[in-house]
Design brief:
- The chain has 16 helices and five strands.
- By secondary structure, it is α/β, with parallel strands linked by helices.
- A five-stranded parallel sheet has the order 2-3-4-1-5, with helices on both faces.
- α1 runs antiparallel to α2, α12 runs antiparallel to α16 and α13 crosses α14.
- The protein starts with a helix and ends with a helix.
Length: 329
């Protein structure tokens, strides 16, 4: 998404709010873009930064061709600073470095922008540091915070930003878009439940890691039902070595959520809603016999709790061990 009109196709309200502010020269000192992965947060942040620095802007649309636009696109503009999680969180030292950068005058203009990706991963010390930034904004400084988990943002930070909610994308339309790009129907159904980002979905489909991740996830569920004494061994020998990075660990839990939902859907006669297993997969019948509806609802809640713990930086091995005990309990 390179223009506001393209943004408006998926996020009409967000596009209208921001373009109106640009045209009226009423840019907020801080924005909080909150929405699921793939809903356009980074594209909006890039466009807003370009609109602030572009010397050949037409209304709210940056020209995309000038020196400033190209440097922002490549991530090399000296007055546009990006802060991303270092590992699983954004640390105090990263915000201190950002504050130091902001003590210098703008290198190419008096405008400065900083973008915080994954603002929900700010440690408590880092959040307090950035709160000071938001409480005493410098002139012509714009903060853009992005999050998939707005409930984890400190209320004091949220209250100092103009919050912009990005609506979820249409999963059915996204599935058809994936199929049109050569993704099989079965993979398109699963990928559309995991992400709304076209490039990411196609990349995952072509990645051997994803194919094995799906296999390992199904094997884990089968181990719970067929070889419960081997589950801990499976977690340490198969699951953790494959799901190494935080994003992979979160996706693993997301896939488990979808698979256990499939089993529940079979219980209640909603097989058409299944995304991981095929309707005629013989494994599902055995899993339906093993997991009761009540147990499945409990497992789904435990999986959501495990996702929260990962976001709170609990060690992933500990998260999976606790989850295993809860599912077996």
């Amino acid at each position: 998404m390179k223009t506001w009109s393209e943004i408006a196709e998926n996020q009409p309200l967000a596009s209208k709010m921001i373009t109106s502010s640009i045209q009226k020269d009423r840019i907020s000192h801080a924005y909080l873009l909150q929405g699921e992965r793939g809903t356009g947060k980074e594209a909006i942040a890039l466009l807003l930064a370009k609109a602030l620095f572009c010397n050949h802007r037409s209304g709210a649309e940056p020209c995309q061709e000038c020196h400033a636009c190209k440097r922002i696109e490549s991530g090399n503009h000296p007055d546009v600073h990006w802060v991303e999680p270092d590992g699983q969180s954004i640390r105090k030292e990263q915000i201190e470095h950002l504050q130091k950068e902001f003590t210098y005058s703008g290198l190419e203009s008096d405008q400065k922008v900083y973008v915080v990706k994954g603002a929900d991963t700010l440690t408590s010390n880092a959040a307090n540091r950035i709160l000071k930034f938001l409480e005493e904004p410098a002139q012509k400084t714009t903060a853009i915070l992005m999050t998939e988990n707005s409930s984890s943002i400190l209320p004091t930070i949220r209250s100092r930003c103009q919050a912009i909610d990005l609506k979820p994308l249409n999963s059915a339309a996204f599935r058809e878009q994936l199929v049109a790009n050569g993704v099989s129907r079965s993979n398109a159904v699963l990928l559309s439940a995991l992400t709304n980002h076209l490039v990411e979905a196609i990349s995952l489909c072509e990645d051997e890691w994803f194919a094995k991740a799906r296999k390992v996830m199904v094997q884990l569920i089968e181990t719970f039902s067929m070889n419960p004494n081997d589950v801990f061994l499976f977690i340490h020998q198969e699951w953790m070595p494959h799901f190494k990075e935080r994003s992979q660990q979160e996706m693993g839990l997301d896939m488990l959520l979808l698979a256990f939902k499939d089993i529940l859907y079979c219980h209640i006669g909603k097989e058409e809603a299944m995304v991981v297993f095929a309707k005629d997969d013989p494994r599902v019948e055995n899993l339906v016999m093993f997991f009761s509806q009540e147990k499945l609802l409990d497992i789904l809640n435990k999986l959501l709790d495990a996702k929260r713990k990962l976001r709170q930086n609990v060690h992933p091995t500990l998260v999976m061990e606790q989850l295993t005990i809860q599912i077996q309990g």
